[in-house]
Amino acid sequence: MMTWFRRGRRGRRRCSNRTRSSPPALTPRWSRRVNKYREAPLHPRAFAARLGRAIFTNGKSDCELVAGLYADTLAGGFGRAEVLEYTFAMWTDEEAVQLAEALPLAKELRYLNLSGNEMIGARGLDALATALRAGAAPKLEAFRFALLWGAKAAALREACGGRGITVEVRT
Questions:
Q1: Per residue in 65-77, pLDDT tens?
Q2: How far, in Å, are 6, 15, 71, 143 from residue 91 at the CA level?
Q3: Spatial distance between the Cα atoms of 18 and 169, rounded to a whole number of angstroms
Q4: Who contacts 100 (Cβ-Cβ below 8 Å, separation ≥6)?
Q5: Distance of alpha carbon 5 from alpha carbon 30, whole angstroms
């Protein structure tokens, strides 16, 4: 591992707190993006339930504060996002269900990319289809699928077709 340094304001060398095995230019492009697990966004209710199992020093008041901050942050960031890219995130049905629960909060979403997540099964795809039929992501224009979903994604394709959402399949 190699530590990278940069020049500070007064010309002194400072550690950038990043370690890399090689400079970014020497790292192959595909190795920087393939198979990096990324957790799915949680609906604020699910996040509050997860927080309920945590222990805070100030008790319940901190739990409520953190849950409220998360809900505000999710509404601000996720709710205003026009593009969501979860490619090669190593998702399974569980993460797809979590996304389906949070998708109604994505009011400005226009493009959703889940390609490369071949481990998502019928349960996760059905949850996404149900969310889209219920009106989640009202401005969604395009949905990019994983090629290997095949026949499992029939309900999701139908839900997209019913709303006029363009389906793209990653080859």
A1: 899 999 999 999 9
A2: 36, 35, 23, 16
A3: 36
A4: 124, 127, 128, 130, 131, 136
A5: 25
